[in-house]
Amino acid sequence: MTLRFFHCFASVLLLLSVSSLALAQGRAVLQDAQLQQLGLQKTWSTQLPIGAKGAKLSSLAQAISPDDMQTVFEVKHQGRSTMFSSRDLSPFGKPLGVEGAKAKADQFVARLDQSKEKPELVEHQVPEVLLLAQSSSGVLTALDGQTGRKLWSQLPGQAFYPSQKASADAKYVATVNGLTLYVLHRENGELFWKRNLSGPPTAGAVVGDGHIYAPLMNGIIEIFDLQDATKPVGRFQSYGQIFANPTITEATVMWPTNRGFVYAGNSFDDKFRYRIEATGEVIASTTHLAPSLNFFATTSGYVYCIYQRDGRIEWRRSYGEPIVASVPAIDDIAYVVLQRGGMHAVEAYTGKEMWYVPGVSQFLAVSGEYVYVLDKSQRILKLEKASGALMGQLSVRDFDYFYTNLESDRLILGTLSGVLYVLQETGKEFPQVHIPLKTGDEEEVPAEEETEKPEEPMEETTKPADGNPFGGGGNPFGGGGGSNPFGGGNPFGGGSGGNDASGGSSDSSNPFGGGGGSNPFGGSNPFGGDDSGGAMDNPFGN
């Protein structure tokens, strides 16, 4: 009797556990009927391999390469659509190319019955889209942004060491794990080279035109040659600490510091351009509107629109509330999300108010006609782009990760446990891309007198500082004289012993100022966990 009771009890527990697992897996699901009400459809969904138990999705980056385009010929006929891509393979196993794909499409059109309806042939230029998902365990996963297919998954560095947001260009992926910068091949994730940073990183390294820019806690951005890691390191020096990823354009690399300064240097070499002193702290990354404008906002409620070539302020406007998010600027409209909720849409070139929607907490994406945002009640709102009118809403309470998409019209959301959804407007098989798809020399900028100006300035503007990133004067920190411009042996203030810039121990090998030893974090495992990171193999052998 006791044995039978035990078996029954074990069966009940098994059923309960299976039911709980099924319930957990059934959460964070978007039904097709729900999406259709908002005029959306699922592009794809997946479960990310985030690594060891307890790991979470820590960052997501989207890289759209303008250098790796495919041409797709779409034949529309009697409600059906047939695609022919330049990357389709011939019978000999080689890509068709543009001419081959066009010939295949023409042959297909010639075989269609055109007595009732003439087929339409549409040419699409489709860029390569890469999603880079970084987990707290250190696992970096690359996905095809069009299909969701997993391209590769690697652990660059040590498991559960802090990893920063990844960045990529057409050939390489850059990521930081611990105190080491790793450069991987974009195609397969294999290691290209790695190099130690001179200090603790505070944001992700970004790939520019032949260079990689890695921001450090002490306000330095180290510059590495993308092709040759043995070349000497260049650097940009700034005042304050950097907590936001730098923004790369064809002309500039721009970054803010926690002291209210925004800096800019060339994105093709190590030449410094200018510094702007803002009214308030700048928390989020700057944004770019091609060909010539950059935007940023401050915690004191100001939004700045600047001319990226020389830092001239086009307009500045106060919103009276803190702003801690970036300012997306797409299709000549800038979107300002207030920290306490609400979003302003303004004309990008003049700062003139277009419309305002209360309760908005995050910008998600924008298409040709609509803007998609997240509100404080955890709902996706579909707004008319021209007026801000509410066109529909969708509850997404089971999701806790939302990507601000400045690069395309796709909606990207998921969970910290690794569920990822990509949504598109119904019938839009190809993404609408918001970044320039042609590269070359520095962008052509309209002459100063031809640049559109507001009829009346929004507010009296401030002038950018000169070429000195510290703003003139022998010592910007007011310290003693001598060859050290920081006025003492330690630019951060604190102990004066040795060469320790953190003001702690004089052991220069430890940038964190902790105890001695080869581990800069102090202890055998700086994060208190098992160094194996859940018995995950480390392909890099460090």
UniProtKB/TrEMBL annotation:
Residues 502-511 have a biased composition (Low complexity). Coiled coil: none annotated. The keyword Hydrolase does not apply. Residues 441-453 have a biased composition (Acidic residues). InterPro entries: PQQ_rpt_dom, Quinoprotein_ADH-like_sf, WD40/YVTN_repeat-like_dom_sf. It holds the Pfam family PQQ_2. Residues 469-501 have a biased composition (Gly residues). Residues 433-542 are annotated as: Disordered. Residues 454-463 have a biased composition (Basic and acidic residues). The keyword Lyase does not apply. It comes from the Bacteria. Residues 1-24 form the signal peptide. PANTHER family: CELL SURFACE PROTEIN, OUTER MEMBRANE PROTEIN ASSEMBLY FACTOR BAMB. This is Outer membrane biogenesis protein BamB.
